[in-house]
Amino acid sequence: QYVKALEISQLLYQQRVNMLPLLPAKESRFFLHYVKLVLQLNQPARALGITSKLRPQIQNPAALERIDDAILSSYYRLELYRQSDSLAQQWIDQHAPEHRNALGFYILGVSKLRTQNYLLALELGLQPIVFAGPLPTQKLAECYAVANSAALGLRQADYAAILFDEMQERSLNLPLDDP
User: Fold this and answer.
1) What is the DSSP annotation of the chain?
2) I need a labelling partner for 176 at 20 to 30 A (CA). Which of 16, 20, 59, 157 fits?
């Protein structure tokens, strides 16, 4: 299903890519769905190429946020950690922990786990958890995984078990698709 949608979106994109500067900004937003499909099919380099052409055309703040999230996710998936860490820090600086997306906290938290800075990783993972409301928060399960791993790194097995139980109470599952 994703493949067919991707094929159609790709055809539309290829027809209009050279005309993007001439298209109304509203029409360019259609291609945000194309970027999402490309990322779902694990093609982050392709997503970066598309977003680099789309971003200058987008004016809507919500659409810009989606483009920036796609850029951050793409750098992270490509394991270009210097760029993704920098973008994740900018993301955190621009978003409150109670935001309905925890992408920046998650990516920077994973970075801190890689460098064995467990205390900072725990703090980054917990911020969106503490402020999560009743509405779903994107990447919240991933933040639980970061916090849980950091607690284990700090040899706080009891706290890691509490986090895992809380995660299950919220009906969240451990992410299986992280690079």
Assistant:
1) -HHHHHHHHHHHHHHHGGGGGGS-HHHHTTHHHHHHHHHHTT-HHHHHHHHHHHGGG---HHHHHHHHHHHHHHHHHTT-HHHHHHHHHHHHHHS-TTSSB-HHHHHHHHHHHHTT-HHHHHHHHHHHHHH--SS--BTHHHHHHHHHHHHHHTT-HHHHHHHHHHHHHTT----S---
2) 157
Residue tagged 């955190």 (tokens):
92
Nearest in space to 101 (alpha carbons), one of 69, 77, 60: 69
Counting every residue written for the chain, the total comes to 179
Percent of the chain with pLDDT over 90: 61
Alpha-carbon distance of 94 to 121, in angstroms, equals 19
Distance CA 84, CA 53 (A): 19
pLDDT in tens, 1-49: 677 877 888 888 787 777 777 777 677 667 888 899 899 889 999 999 9
Closest CA to 104 of 134, 75, 130, 84: 84
Name, in order, each residue with C-beta under 8 angstroms of 147's C-beta and a sequence gap of 6 or more: 109, 121, 122, 125, 126, 129, 163
Percentage with pLDDT > 70 across the chain: 95
Residue 160, pLDDT score: 96
